[in-house]
Design a protein that fits this description.
The protein has 501 residues and is an alpha/beta fold. It contains 20 helices and 7 strands. Helix 4 links the parallel strand 6 and strand 7. Helix 10 runs antiparallel to helix 11. The structure holds flavin-adenine dinucleotide.
Length: 501
């Protein structure tokens, strides 16, 4: 259709940004460029978690579905501002992309390659469907801080524990500089004789971003309104991600104390809250790194500035672990192939999920997750440890629950951290938490528990983390009847040592 001129498609996946996007930059060397995003139906609705002890769960809940829709809308707007367009479709990419490539007269499709087996399978199907039409799929590795090619060893040989992995990385691998946003070539003129699935072939970007109903996102758990207790108002998209980076690092100057505050539980600034934007690629980890380096040069270089990058290396660690171990990371026995008799007690699981365990610190965490889609790292560790180590329930059920609800869900980070806490992951040590000790240590004034368990609001601080120690007279005095207003603990609290005297 365009004579000697070259035409490329860029298929956006979890790289919903224009800044530091090597896939986009490579695609933009063509004479014509058509950006595409596909809402893949396999990412939504109920589905079975495979294997003999299969259970059903919802893949994407309301929080992340909203965040994703906002991110795609923001990308479309940014592309429009650059006289480009985003073709938005609802369907399987391997079915849609070959037709769109035909209609555009494209000879190549560029995309981000991802490490998780399911995502790799989609990529393989797309590659073969495109090859049938003589179109080439060209991929780029862009999800991590360190490029795969810059690891000290081939991925198959990386260490399975974090410290040696990180030490070698720090000693030998440099983080590449972010790249600039390219000039975007114009969109091709559609070939109307070929079906592209577009209702209006003269305007590639005409279709709206599908709503939650169309995507099949269950409304059951959708919060009715914004919860003003939420740690942050997580708005999807590159614009909001870059604004958060600027606010956290520069405007609010919080990076300076990150190491001291990162175990916090309430409010926007105890940690960066970058995760949701990083995981959909609205924010590039290399951009965050570059901003930390600039901060170090212009304001202060200290343990906190080091520690934020240290945490980004944890993120990389799990991305490379899933690259190395593939589906084994998602099995009950994990990469350590540790046989554990996991319980499948659905009643107990539902109590945990509903924040009704009778252990206030755990309940606060699970209620926050359901209401807002976010939890601090400290809350995640305790909620996960309670399910996997104290209830001994199949850790993958807990991980799947997080998968539904987390606004910042990432398969490698989520299942990797869960396996780690459950003792089947990357560390041989017992990772079980004394959740009562943790509650006293990290929520000493019980502000977190009182925020999310309002029925305990009047219980004094000495009792609120262990309401089962209240006498009947105290229950009456503080207006909470155990077993009626707030549950009895579902585990024997004697298993915890609790606070130090
Ligand atoms: C059971 C469990 C499940 C988790 N599931 C996820 C998940 O699905 N997605 C996710 O991004 N993180 C997950 N984490 C890791 C961590 O809790 C979150 O990354 C962090 O709380 C996000 O908040 P933040 O951006 O303010 O983090 P910050 O403390 O500001 O850290 C900066 C960044 O470093 C990365 N990071 C920090 N800690 C970890 C870690 N332990 N593992 C991997 N990356 C890390 C994140 O990208 C984060 O945005 C999980 C942790 C646990 C214990």
């Amino acid at each position: 259709m365009s004579g000697e001129q070259s035409t490329a498609l860029v298929w956006f996946r979890r790289d919903l940004r224009l800044h530091d996007n090597p896939t986009l930059a490579a695609a933009a060397t063509a004479d014509h460029l058509l950006p595409v995003y596909c809402f893949d139906p396999r990412e939504f609705g109920p589905r079975p978690y495979g294997g003999p002890d299969s259970f059903e769960y919802e893949k994407t809940g309301p929080h992340r579905a909203r965040f994703l829709r906002e991110s795609v809308a923001d990308l479309r707007e940014s592309l429009r501002e650059r006289d480009s367009a985003l073709v938005v479709r609802h369907g399987r990419p391997e079915e849609l992309l070959p037709d769109i490539a035909d209609a555009a007269g494209a000879s190549a499709v560029y995309c981000q390659t991802l490490p998780v087996p399911e995502e790799r399978a989609v990529e393989a199907s797309v590659e073969s469907a495109l090859a049938d039409r003589g179109v080439e799929l060209r991929t780029r590795w862009t999800h991590t801080l360190h490029h795969r090619d810059d690891l000290p060893t081939p991925v198959a040989e990386i260490a399975d524990t974090f410290t040696p992995f990180k030490d070698r990385l720090e000693a030998t691998s440099r983080v590449r500089e972010p790249i600039s946003t390219p000039e975007l070539p114009p969109a091709p003129t559609p070939d109307s004789s070929v079906s592209s699935g577009s209702s209006d072939s003269s305007d590639w970007g005409a279709k709206e971003v599908p709503d939650a109903d169309t995507l099949g996102v269950s409304a059951v758990e959708a919060p009715t309104a914004e919860d003003d207790r939420a740690a942050l108002d997580f708005r999807g998209g590159e614009s909001a991600g870059l604004a958060r980076l600027d606010a956290y690092v520069w405007e609010r100057d919080r990076l300076r104390e990150y190491r001291e505050t990162r175990n916090g539980l309430l409010g926007p600034d105890y940690s960066s809250k970058f995760s949701a934007w990083l995981n959909l690629g609205c924010l590039s980890p290399r951009r965050v790194h570059a901003e930390v380096e600039r901060y170090e040069a212009e304001r202060v270089e200290n343990d906190s500035t080091y520690w934020l990058v240290f945490e980004l290396r944890w993120r990389d660690f799990f991305q490379f672990q899933v690259t190395k171990h593939g589906a084994q990371l998602f099995r009950p026995e994990g990469i350590r192939e540790r046989e554990v008799e996991w319980s499948v007690d659905s009643g107990a699981f539902e109590r945990w999920a509903a924040g009704q365990t009778g252990i206030p610190f755990v309940d606060a965490a699970m209620r926050e997750l359901a209401a807002t889609g976010y939890q601090s790292n400290r809350a995640r560790q305790n909620a996960a440890s309670f399910l996997a180590n104290d209830l001994r329930i199949d850790w993958r059920r807990g991980a799947a629950r997080f998968e539904t609800l987390l606004v910042d869900y990432d398969p490698a980070s989520n299942y990797g951290n869960w396996a780690y806490v459950a003792g089947v992951g990357n560390d041989a040590r017992d990772r079980s938490f004394d959740v009562l000790w943790q509650a006293h240590r990290y929520d000493p004034d019980a502000e977190y528990v009182r925020t999310w368990c309002p029925e305990l609001a009047d219980v004094p601080v000495e009792k609120v983390h262990q309401p089962w120690t209240m006498t009947a007279a105290e229950e009456a005095e503080y207006g909470v009847e155990l077993g009626a207003d707030y549950p009895e603990p579902m585990v024997d609290p004697e298993i915890y040592e609790g606070p130090e005297d």
